[in-house]
Amino acid sequence: MGETEEKEVKKNHGDKEEEHNKAEKADKKEKKKDKDKKDKNEEDKNGGGEEGEDQEKKSKKKDKKTKKEKNPEDKKDPEKLKMKLQKIEEKIQAMVLKKDEIVKLIHDAEQAKGSAVAAADAPPPTN
Q1: Within a domain: residue 56?
Q2: Does residue 62 form part of some domain?
Q3: Which of 30, 58, 102, 123 has its CA 20 to 30 A from that of 110?
């Protein structure tokens, strides 16, 4: 019976060490977070430089990700519908221009490849 009591005492001691280690890790994480916050606040006060700009971009992306609540009256307002249609048409025109540029690049690349193959197939000139 003495063995089981010793095992339980060792197990309990191990559990206490584990809890202590977990507490230390949590304290370290909190200290690191506090330091990061402090550093961030100092950067904000100092202008932040490029990192400040990155923060602005991140916040703008977050704003874009959060969807606006749609107003059901917008679907009934002809002015707003016309504005939406105009925006879509502008986007389509921009996409068509990009498509045309890519098609032209493909065409040019195929011609260049074709002329390179033709030059390689031609026999060398004799003098």
Answers
A1: no
A2: no
A3: 123
